Amino acid sequence: MKAKIIVNKNFAVGEIDKRIYGSFVEHLGRCVYGGIYEPTHKTANDFGFREDVLELVKQIDVPIVRYPGGNFVSGYNWEDGIGDKTKRPQKKDFAWKSIETNQIGIDEFQEWARQANTTINMAVNLGTRGAKEAQNLVEYCNADTDTYYANLRKQNGFEKPFAIKTWCLGNEMDGDWQIGHKTADEYGRIANEAAKLMKLVDPKIELVVCGSSVCELETFGEWELTVLDHTYDNVDYISLHQYYGNQSNNTADFLGRSVHLDAFIKSVVAMCDTVKAKKRSKKQINLALDEWNVWYHSHGAKIEDWQIAPPLLEDIYNLEDALLVGCMLMTLQNNCDRVKIACLAQLVNVIAPIMTENDGAAWAQTIFYPYMYASRFGRGKALKTVTECENYTTTDKFIVPYVESSVIVNEEKRQIVVFAVNRSLDEDMELSFDLGGFDTAVMKEHIELYCDDLKTVNTKECQNVAPKSKEINVQKSAYQQVTLNKHSWNMIRFGY
């Protein structure tokens, strides 16, 4: 099979906001306790954070992490997680039917974020709590005034504000599984009042209002239009969530799900712009895909309720999962004009690129690698990409190109980075490049993620699915070629 990627340096989608390579830490399963925090672990530092996990997070270069949920936040009192640890209450978390010890809260998490070289996307509880509690949390985190909650933070040992810029106004409030579930009008009104109060404390913060948690809900579309009608003037982003699985073991359909994601993104953009036109506004609302991933391996697992940090949602990822994650990352890059924040859910143990053992090892799952390379090399300007190749049609009638691709130019480093997945399950792909305006481009590197068996996984003992460097044929020409193995993820880097 043959394919060609065509770009021109004068035609760009836009500048990539590095926050599209964000992640998510929720008080769910072993994400926090046994994941980022395990004070008895041999690598634990003075704060109880696992240094082996921190090192893997730094390898990805995660720019922002959503916290503390997720479904968890809709029943959470943030005050339970501050101050003297010996006085913090142990409580039932009804979202995940677990016991929350509150040994980690915003006091500790902002320190972990500093050590991980990342920032926080903080969620407030608009399920069982309201606008005033959200305002108080912003004061605790961001104010430097002689007022109650700012002084409480100082009394707890933090003289300087945490300076959290990005905030989520609740989580999945359209879902009837959510604690404090609301109608679009109910949620729109409370979100708008919370937004106003929060920005009175800190006018510099950015706010993410809840969009639909899944696009298959009957309320999808009407929810966005109603919520934005209430909140448009006071928020900056609307969220969307998307997970995919291969329960039917139809790999061709599964690898084509990024085309569905692209359509989902464009439909939400259309809704944002509909409300903008209705309100005759000059303000643009952008998108935050603040939960996304492959999630299905752990469905149906039976875990005893009311444990502390039980092993919930611990999907073990294989090569085909990594291919779809790579395709979804390309979709984000190719929609970077409107998608400004995205959070791979989650970071450690819970549907995560990083796995750990309690008192044991930490290792990279297969999805770690396309995520890491996208984050580290996908900074710059995304070019509009035309990919000439054959297509196939999924069982639900989506037309899917055999090659998924994105092209990012980093002018400061004078490099062009091409990400590409060959979706063909049985044929290699001869891929050529037409890099218009980059006549001096020289291929520098070709990294590949491939093995013959799509179901291959990584373990603590062996990284069976790991990146390998492929030999390149250096030519001083913008019309260079590489071979993409069947069902492989690739990064090809040019200098110019």
Characterization of this structure:
The protein is an alpha/beta fold. The protein has 2 domains: 17-377, Glycosidases (TIM Barrel); 384-495, Golgi alpha-mannosidase II (Immunoglobulin-like). Helices cover 24% and strands 25% of the residues. It is built from 10 helices and 25 strands. The chain has helices at residues 51-60, 106-115, 131-142, 148-155, 184-201, 222-231, 251-255, 257-278, 319-334, 368-377, and strands at 2-8, 12-15, 22-24, 64-67, 91-93, 98-100, 119-124, 166-169, 206-209, 237-244, 286-294, 339-345, 354-356, 362-364, 381-383, 386-388, 391-393, 399-401, 403-410, 415-422, 429-436, 442-449, 468-469, 481-484, 488-495. Strands 3-4-7-8-9-10-11-12 form an 8-stranded parallel beta barrel, surrounded by 6 helices. Strand 3, helix 1 (51-60) and strand 4 form a beta-alpha-beta unit. Helix 6 (222-231) packs across helix 8. The two termini are 28 Å apart.
Biggest sheet statistics: 8 strands, parallel, barrel
- Please report the first level of CATH classification, the CATH class of the largest domain: Alpha Beta
Unreliable segments (pLDDT under 50, ≥5 consecutive)?
Answer: none
Task: Write out the strand line-up for the largest beta sheet, numbering strands in chain order.
Answer: 3-4-7-8-9-10-11-12
By DSSP, the count of extended strands is: 25
- Spatial shape: globular
Structural class computed from helices and strand pairing = alpha/beta
| Approximate helicity band | 10-25%
- Gyration radius, to the nearest Å? 23 Å
Mean of the pLDDT scores? 97
**CATH fold label of the largest domain:** TIM Barrel
Number of helices: 10
- CATH architecture title of the largest domain: Alpha-Beta Barrel
Measured between the Cα atoms of the first and last residue, the distance is 28 Å
**How much β-strand is present in the residues?**
25-35%
Total domain count: 2
CATH homologous superfamily grouping of the largest domain: Glycosidases
